[in-house]
Design brief:
It is a single chain. The protein is mainly β. The chain has one domain: UDP N-Acetylglucosamine Acyltransferase, domain 1, CATH 2.160.10.10. 0% of the residues lie in helices and 32% in strands. It has strands at residues 5-6, 11-12, 17-18, 23-24, 29-30, 35-36, 41-42, 47-48, 53-54, 59-60, 65-66, 70-72, 77-78, 83-84, 103-105, 110-111, 116-117, 122-123, 128-129, 134-135, 143-146, 151-155, 172-173, 180-184, 190-193. The strands form five sheets. The protein has a nine-stranded mixed beta sheet, with no helix packed on it. It has a six-stranded parallel beta sheet with strand order 3-6-9-12-15-18, with no helix packed on it. The protein has a four-stranded parallel beta sheet with strand order 2-5-8-11, with no helix packed on it.
Length: 195
């Protein structure tokens, strides 16, 4: 017997894959073909389309809709009411299902409450998108991005703590967990953990 919890008001269509330990709360709809990993939580009022892939350990807060083409790697956090698109230039009178642009939220990344992620981007591992931001381009690992459109304003540790001072001046230690980071790349546009 697989250990999982599905609230009686949720609709989980036949043909879904749900991992052990996953919890599905009130008024969630998971469509046939969706794959959800182990130990995930889907909050009240979420929608998961059939072409969505969700890794292990993801936390999806209330009222998040995940449409075809969205992939969440392991340990992703999605804040309440964040929005994902799957067509760049939608029109009601033009069929564009063949034009769905894939979106990937990489391992350990966080998307803040009410943020919008425009399709066709990748949010790098352990990146953090602030509440209300609008992501229109891909973000590197450990990026801290805010605003509309979202711009990188700093870097964050794997534990989620912003890195103070910026690792461009040499290794910077996380004030919370002690991990150290340095930047690399021609413009200092990559941040890497060194311990």
């Amino acid at each position: 017997m697989v250990d999982m919890s599905i609230h009686p008001s949720a609709i989980v269509d036949p043909g879904c894959e749900l991992g052990e330990g996953t919890r599905i709360w009130h008024h969630v709809h998971v469509m046939s073909g969706a794959r959800i990993g182990k130990n995930c939580v889907l909050g009240q009022g979420c929608f998961v389309a059939g072409g969505v892939r969700i890794g292990d350990g993801c936390r999806i807060q209330n009222h998040v809709s995940l449409y075809d083409g969205v992939t969440l790697e392991d340990d992703v956090f999605l804040g309440p009411s964040c929005v994902f698109t799957n067509v760049r230039y939608p029109r009601a009178h033009v069929a564009r299902k063949a034009e769905y642009a894939p979106t990937r939220i990489s391992r350990g990344a966080t998307i803040g409450a009410n943020a919008t992620v425009v399709c066709g981007v990748t949010v790098g591992p352990y990146a953090m998108v602030g509440a209300g931001a609008v992501v229109t381009c891909s973000l590197p690992a450990h990026a801290l991005a805010v605003g509309a459109p979202a711009r990188r304003v700093g870097w964050v540790c794997r534990c989620g703590e912003p890195l103070r001072g910026g690792p461009s001046v040499g290794p910077v230690e996380c004030a919370r967990c002690g991990d150290a980071y340095v930047t690399s790349g021609e413009l200092g546009d990559r941040c890497e953990r060194v311990t």
